[in-house]
Amino acid sequence: MHRIASGELYRTYTLGDLRITALRDGYVDMPVGRLRQRGDKPFGDELPEQVALVGGQLRLSVNAFAIDDGHEITLIDTGAANAWHPTMGRLPQALDEAGIDVEKVRTVCFTHTHLDHIQGLVLADGRDAFPRLVRLLVPRQELDLFRTDARLERFHDMAEPFEAGDRLGTHVDIIGAHGHEVGHSCFRASSGGESILIWGDTVHVPSLQFDRPEVTWEFDTDQDQARESRLRLLALAAGDHYLVAGAHLDSPGIGRVVRSGGSFRFEPL
C-alpha cells in the first residue's frame, strides 16, 4: 500500500487496483471515564504516559474511508455533519480536498449506526450529501435503529440490510465485529495480494487499547463481546499482515498491527 496523495483532511493510497482514501471528519474530546474495565467498572489504573490528554480529555479522531475501484466509489461511514460536536462535520471539505466528486459516491455502508458514522448523509444545510446515492447498506441487526432516526427519515426506505459473510462487489467482504453495537461490522477490502480491514470502532483509544485490548468503552453495547471482537480482529490483522483503518485511530487512521509480547502494537502507515 502506497500513499499517492495527501492534504490536511485526507490521504489516498493504492491497494492493488483500488484506491483507499482516508477522510477526516474532525475529532471529539471525551472524558477518561469512558474507558472501562471488566464488569463495566471505570478505568481505575493510572493512564500510561503515552496516552496524551487535551484539556484533561481523550481526543478521538473521527474518520471515514472511500474505496474507489475505478468504476464507482463506496464510502464507509459518513461522519457526524452538524448533529453532534462542532469539531466534526468536515467530511464535505475532506472529499473536496481529495478530489472525490460526491456524485460518484453511489454506495454508502455503515459499520454501525452511531451518529458520528451516519449523520453525514445530510449536509448542515439539509441537502443530501450524496445526490446520486443508489445503495445504502446498514447492518441487519441495526436496521430498526437506523429507521428511528428522524433526521435521516428520507433514507429509511432506501436502507438495505447486510450481514457478516456478505460480499460487496469483487473486492470487499464483511466480517462480523459485534459488541460496540449489535451489528458492528468490519469491511475487508482486498486487491493485488493486499488487504485492509476498515473496522469502525474496534479501537477508540489507540494509545492504550492495542497494548491493553481488554479495556473497553462505556458506549459499547456489549462490552464482553466488544472485547472479544477486538482481540479477534487484532489477531487476524497481525497474523495475516492486513492493514487496518479505524474510525477513531489518529488521522489518517491507517496502519499495521504487530504482536508485541502478549499484546499488540499499532504502526501508522
Automatic annotation (TrEMBL):
GO MF term list: hydrolase activity; metal ion binding
One Pfam family of this chain: Lactamase_B
Record-linked SUPFAM superfamilies: Metallo-hydrolase/oxidoreductase
Keywords: Hydrolase, Metal-binding, Zinc
Family annotation (SMART domains): Lactamase_B (SM00849)
PANTHER family the UniProt entry points to: QUORUM-QUENCHING LACTONASE YTNP-RELATED, QUORUM-QUENCHING LACTONASE YTNP-RELATED-RELATED
Family designation: Belongs to the metallo-beta-lactamase superfamily.
Protein name: MBL fold metallo-hydrolase
